[in-house]
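Please decode residue identities from the backbone states below.
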């Protein structure tokens, strides 16, 4: 373990999430999580959330702490998924949180019940944000009412901005240093695009 991050608010406020020493792990920091959950406000309470590329689980666990009814943490790496399961066994009230060890984009291609909120924070520097938004457009879990949070590195902005403008409605947008935060909804005409 290289460090810990804390839950900001809710039933698990102040609890620490261990952060593994993993090359692709970049947990969303306190400032960005505070911004995101201020944007979401009471919409989190009773919601069904999906944390793609869960990593440390910071976003999904923060949502569960703030009253989400169900949280699905999708993490490809077996070690990170196992660490999340172990953590949840220790935290009271975590029965609504489940860990799926799977590739996030492949998981999106399977039949899933709709969710209210998606946290899409793939590793930076690989152009995965655009591919993730493309997969979400046709995913069964994403409806025209689903809120999608995506983080990107400033270097990835031109491609991501074009993808957002084409298929999404940007509800909130903020730059924090070299990271850009967005809260999106599918544009009415985009959902189901590509389906026959």
């Amino acid at each position: 373990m290289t460090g810990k991050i804390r839950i900001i608010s809710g039933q698990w406020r102040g609890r620490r999430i261990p952060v593994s020493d993993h090359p692709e792990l970049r947990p969303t920091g306190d400032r960005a999580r505070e911004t995101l959950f201020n944007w979401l406000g009471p919409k989190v309470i009773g919601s069904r959330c999906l944390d793609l590329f869960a990593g440390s689980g910071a976003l999904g666990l923060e949502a569960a702490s703030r009253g989400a009814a169900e949280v699905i943490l999708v993490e490809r790496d077996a070690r990170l998924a196992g660490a999340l399961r172990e953590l949840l066994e220790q935290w009271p009230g975590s029965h609504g949180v489940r860990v799926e060890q799977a590739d996030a984009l492949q998981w999106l291609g399977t039949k899933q019940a709709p969710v209210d909120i998606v946290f899409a924070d793939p590793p930076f520097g690989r152009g995965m944000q655009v591919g993730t938004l493309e997969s979400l457009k046709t995913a069964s879990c994403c409806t025209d009412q689903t809120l999608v949070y995506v983080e990107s590195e400033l270097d990835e902005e031109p491609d991501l901005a074009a993808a957002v403008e084409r298929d999404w409605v940007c509800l909130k947008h903020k730059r924090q240093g070299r990271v850009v935060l967005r809260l999106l909804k599918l544009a009415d005409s985009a959902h189901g695009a590509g389906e026959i």
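Observation: The beta strands are 3-6, 16-19, 48-52, 70-75, 97-101, 117-120, 147-153, 168-176, 179-186.
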